[in-house]
Design brief:
single chain, 235 residues, seven-stranded parallel beta sheet, three-stranded antiparallel beta sheet, 32% helix, alpha/beta
């Protein structure tokens, strides 16, 4: 896979710092080329160190839109909200000047249906017509974004002919309904950064490198021959 660039770091903190500098450089280039830049990030606990390094990078954050690769269908103040994670750990310091475009932004405890939330998210994303940098994570089951193995929506999410940029997902095991970018939307990004840490995830990554398999959705990204896919990992 000649277009896949691997970066092996010593530990999580080194990965966070190096990934933050790489993302910031590409956002800076996009601002220079287009006058603005768009960044889509993933949630969970592992990106926190990366967010805290990225928010102090000296770029023109006023010209950056930040959104999410996926989010859980929960209220904005829920502990599992990726939007809350971004507001708490990324939209601080220098990066507080960026514009945030959440996928799910419900203020009250009553969350609408998955279809209604998906429609809202698609409307929100009209403010982000182009994504310059897409930062993906990977679960131990090989899922990326919220493209989960065995999910009913997986085939739709992996269909490169699907014109929807976002889909609703009901994970077969993980909690909460989700909104997720499709594979086509991921591959439409100018730069794809995959971040993974630990021996278990590296083993899944090595398995995914063996070939495209729906059981490991990340494999569809790794084998797509995207012109700028970088994998950042640590032991």
């Amino acid at each position: 896979m000649p277009n896949l660039h691997e970066h092996q770091l010593l530990n999580a903190q080194a990965l966070a710092g190096q990934l933050a500098m790489a993302v910031a450089a590409r956002l800076h280039d996009a601002i220079q080329a287009h006058g603005s830049a768009a960044l889509a990030v993933s949630g969970g606990k592992s990106p926190i160190a990366f967010f805290e390094c990225l928010r102090e990078q000296d770029i023109d954050w006023h010209q950056v839109r930040i959104t999410l690769v996926d989010d859980r269908c929960v209220p904005r103040d829920h502990g599992d909200s990726n939007a809350l994670l971004v507001r708490t750990h990324l939209l601080q310091g220098l990066a507080s000047a960026a514009t945030f475009v959440p996928l799910v932004d419900e203020a009250g405890p009553a969350v609408p249906t998955l279809d209604a939330l998906t429609d809202r998210a698609r409307l929100q994303w009209t403010a982000v017509p182009r994504i310059d940098v897409m930062v993906l994570g990977m679960g131990d089951d090989g899922h990326t974004a919220s493209l989960f193995p065995n999910a009913k929506a997986l085939a739709n999410g992996l269909d490169l002919g699907n014109s929807d940029r976002l889909i609703g997902v009901e994970p077969p095991v993980a909690p909460h309904l989700r909104i997720s970018a499709t594979l086509a939307e991921i591959l439409a990004a100018e730069h794809i950064m995959v971040s993974l840490g630990g021996a278990a995830k590296q083993a899944v990554y090595q398995q995914a490198l063996q070939g495209v398999q729906d059981a490991l959705p990340i494999s569809h990204v790794l084998h797509a021959q995207h012109p700028s896919t970088h994998v950042w990992m640590h032991a």
